Amino acid sequence: MKTVNLNKETPSVGELLALARKKSVLLVAQDGASFVLEEADEFDREVAEMGSSARFMKFLRKRSQEKAETSIEQLAEELTGKGRIAAKPPRSASVPPKRSSRRLLKRGSAR
Fold it and tell me: Which of 12, 28, 53, 97 gets the highest tally of CB atoms within 10 A of its CB?
């Protein structure tokens, strides 16, 4: 991440955009406030769009008021009772769970 202190330098918007195309830019304003400038991908645009949607925010408020607890027994009954999946036998204690070595990285680089 490149830091640009606006007390010490005054790059143009074009220069800042050129920097942001290469890597994230931390802008430190004259009053000390910090801002991050980086190229937006599809996910970033979708988040911005959904965050400004009154309809979506209403949906989230409604969902957050729903009952948050379901016992494992209730879940198993719902799933097996409707014939969606069969109950699996418990994993043997001698067989360790598989671990994934994959990491999700935004635009292919670690941050």
Answer: 28
Angle of CA points 73, 77, 82, to nearest 5°: 160
Residue 45 token pair = 């645009």
Contact 50, 61 (CB under 8 A): no
Q: Would strands 25-28 and 2-5 be described as parallel, antiparallel, or unpaired?
A: parallel
| Integer angstrom CA distances of residue 75 from 66, 67, 70, 85, 99 | 16, 14, 7, 11, 25
Q: Where are the domains of the chain?
A: 1-39, 42-82
Place of tokens 């999946």: 85
Whole-prediction pTM: 0.44
E-assigned strand segments in the chain: 2-5, 25-28, 34-37
List the end-to-end C-alpha distance of the chain, in Å, as a whole number. Answer: 8
- Distance (Å, rounded) from C-alpha 84 to C-alpha 79? 6
φ and ψ at 93, to 5 degrees?
A: -65, -20
